[in-house]
Amino acid sequence: MALKDVLLDELRDMYSAENQLVKALPKLAKGAKNPTLKQLFTAHLEETKGQVERLKQVFAELEEKPTGQHCNGMEGVIEEGKEALEKDETGASFDSGLIGAALRTEHYEIAGYQACIAMAKTLGLSTAVSLLTENMNEELAAANKITAAAQPILKESAQQPEEPKKPKSAKEKYSAQKSKEDEKKAAPDLKKRAS
Ligand SMILES: [Fe+2]
Ligand SMILES: [Fe+2]
């Protein structure tokens, strides 16, 4: 497979990821309690719509169609965000969960754009490089804004009393079981680690 085909796969993944975020960001915005955070998610939704358009321009430039690949990675990251939205935490602690989910999303996108930009540069696709760089810069700025907005929210959350432990839901039990399996599977390899 030529590098251009690898790039097209990556770009189609990004296109799917951005489209998934067009649907997911309003849920984060609706869920956020803190007005600054709410406003950030809403503003980034608008940017995301613009990013979808830029990706379409990249595909037009390459004379290829943007669909063809669903981004499973982003689906998983968004699923984690859904879990944060389902938590019974209140106020700043609830928002702290959303901040974690949102930062994962932004950094997943940044990683994707970094790979695409490096490939497009290697192939000498200068228009694609500049369009993708615009998208990446918006992701970097979004991550920075979320981190800045997080400061007072995390401080407030640290002041909240600890909630009494509630019985786990079926989903939480399944997740806990899977995490134990993750640990068990890794254990033999961890043992082999040179100390
Ligand atoms: Fe994006
Ligand atoms: Fe983003």
Label this structure with key terms.
195 residues, Ferritin, binds fe (ii) ion, 6 helices, mainly alpha
Descriptive account of the structure:
It is a single chain. The N and C termini lie far apart (40 Å). The protein has a single domain, classed as Ferritin (Up-down Bundle). It is globular. Helix 3 runs antiparallel to helix 4. It is mainly α. Helices cover 82% and strands 0% of the residues. The longest helix has 34 residues. The protein binds fe (ii) ion (2 copies). One fe (ii) ion binds next to helix 2, helix 4 and helix 5.
Low-confidence parts? none
| Percentage beta strand | under 5%
N- to C-terminal distance = 40 Å
CATH topology: Ferritin
Number of helices: 6
Major pleated sheet: none
Q: Can I get a quick summary?
A:
It is built from 6 helices and no strands.
Itemize the secondary structure elements and their pairings:
Blueprint lengths: L2 H29 L3 H28 L9 H15 L4 H32 L3 H34 L10 H22 L4
Helix pairs in contact: 1-2, 1-3, 1-4, 2-5, 3-4, 4-5
The structure holds fe (ii) ion (2 copies).
